[in-house]
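protien #1 (seq + structre)
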Amino acid sequence: MSGARGAGRAAPSAYEGFVRSADGVPVHLVVEGRGPVCVLGAGLGLGWFDWDPVVALLAPYRTVVRYDRPGHGLSGPAAAPPTATGEARRVAGLLDALGPAGRDPVTVVGHSMGGFHAEAFARLYPARTAALVLVDTSVEEDPRPPRLPAAVRERAAVALGRALTAAGLPAALGPLVRRAGIRASRTGGADPAARDLVRRCYRTGRVWQGALLENSRYPDLAAEVLALRAERPLGAPVTVLAGYDGSARPGALRWLARQAALADRLGARFEVADPSGHLVMLDRPDQVARAVRAASTA
């Protein structure tokens, strides 16, 4: 694609299409808004449209870039097991496709497991990073290698995904499972996504296979990011925005404490979205948008 401009100048008001990444996977890309660029990375199994409430608030002030990782949303199936470094390179390639605007420093935002990818980008591409915002990000203080080798876990994930697809379960139950998961991860109610989009994505075996494959590499991604922290310092301001449902449940309080400890470890600004479930961008889109705007102007 072309026609983008530098940060703070005119940028595409809307673009949706596919960009082929370095590994050959067609990646679904959506660009909206005007101004400095920010990139939104979703969590495990989520799609570009899960950021819709945030984009509505950000687009008047930022050029918002959303993409689906391989096997997610509308992107093609994964060509290889995911790594944090590989996803950081994918983001860099997508920004290159924007033209001049994508080469200016950007604010990179990651939710849940997407936080691993966002942090990896900020560490591997410090000159291209204006700010890092982690939204209820995955936290692993001391990731340990699982008993099963990565290759075995990957083969098991692929086999399970194929078996589920062959049995017709994604087509029959995919949207219902998606909506149940969204409801369980919010304080604010049901899944707001359009039904046609949910059916288009979650009735396919591709999306469920992609999520299973990515989840099989979760401990490896956590260990990879931990290693990057030791080798690649952050050069941009960081915000950790934690979701908290306002309850006194031990699990909720422990999660909040872990998010606060991560912020301390990263030297980050720490904010709490209260009340909010894990899907902060759906429960508190206003606070996510404010955090992104504040981070990139700090």
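ok now protien #2
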Amino acid sequence: MRTQPNTVLDIHELSKRFGAFVAVDQLSMTVERGDVFGFLGPNGAGKSTTIRMIVGLIRPTEGHIKIFGQSLKAQRVNILSRIGALVEKPSFYRYLPAWTNLYIHAKMLGGNAVDTIDDVLKLVDLSDRASSKVKTYSQGMKQRLGIAQALLGKPEFIILDEPTTGLDPQGMIDIRLLIKRLSSEGITVMLSSHLLHEVEQICNRMAIINHGKLIVQGDVRTLLSQRDGTLHVIVDKKNVAKQALSALPWLQSVAEEANGLRISLPHQYIPDMNAALVNAGVRVSAIHSDVSLEDYFLSMVETTHGNTDLSGMH
């Protein structure tokens, strides 16, 4: 019986140097079973190099990679048979049908991969176009076919490197829904992306790297809650609410808005703020935060200043 360690990916002090250039620098992070894990960083941060080391395309200069509790260096064949990856833009035989493309890849994988073709086409919503030549596919359909290819053989862990690059808005939505579907099927997902709002919507944990170094990793909601920001709080008794909040030592500011209050405070005190309002007899209808993953990302990356290109992050 195959053991099921809770940690799917464990990277420890991983480094990759190309001559004098350090692409990845003593990077340590973990992906847990069931995660939709966001892997973030500005252009040139080392994300793609890290992914290439994880899937065995390049060798680390230093450090260790464990997947499913096993050393990638010692158990490479066994480990890679249990993971799928979409790295860079997927390539296919354009004049062959999608099903045939998957069949060729499945035969190379061996095992029961051929038996999974129809299932993965259904999972990525391409069953009705299985017999169509790939040259007739839109870019979004090609991306989904690439994910289908990565799913052949029923991997437990799938790594997607910028899967929405070059897609129109509908294509992005399709990939986002697909990732959620994969997670619901019990597949652990690692998603490298420059679309911060997308990561915020679909990822439960994340890591941010810059210049090859880890800046931060953890639960997305917890990390965002640790950043100071502005709240929009809808209440029924503004004056009573302002009086109750004025006694709180960590409150930074409070001002009236059309339908409530605008409050600035460290976000870890939101539960205490809510309790103070309720205890004062104030009805709290909603609490909205202005802190986004983009705000958090920019604040983290600014601490690792240098030649950081943020032009692709949004």
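The chain has a mean pLDDT of 85.
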